[in-house]
Write a structure and sequence with these properties.
96% of the residues lie in helices and 0% in strands. By secondary structure, it is mainly α. Helix 1 runs antiparallel to helix 2. The longest helix has 120 residues. 0% of the residues are buried.
Amino acid sequence: MDKKDLEAIAQIVNSAIESSNEELKEEIRQTGEALREEFREEMNVFEEKMTDRMNSFEKEMTDRMNSFEKKMLDKMFLFEQDYGEKIDAIFDVAVMQKDKAQQMYENQEKFGIQVDNLDTKIFNLDQRVFKLEHS
């Protein structure tokens, strides 16, 4: 074998390597695109599942909150119904006691004035003058 034959063989081998490299590159590119597409599809499926789960979770939480709100309103209504009359009665008693205390104070003042007047009529002149001067 001479140099020309070796060069021809080298060219044949190089062209075979280049074509197999090109085929390999094309196959890798196609495989990569297929994997990307498969990944996108899986991500879309995952996203749909997560969206469905989030929507169902949101609906469940909304239902629970509505249920809780209804229970609280019912309890507040029962509280107002049960204790509202009692609170009104306690308030009325407190107001009446205040009015009663005010009336007692006024009565005490009137009584004090009457006692002072009686004292001036009953006691001797010195005590009456002292009492009148100091009232």
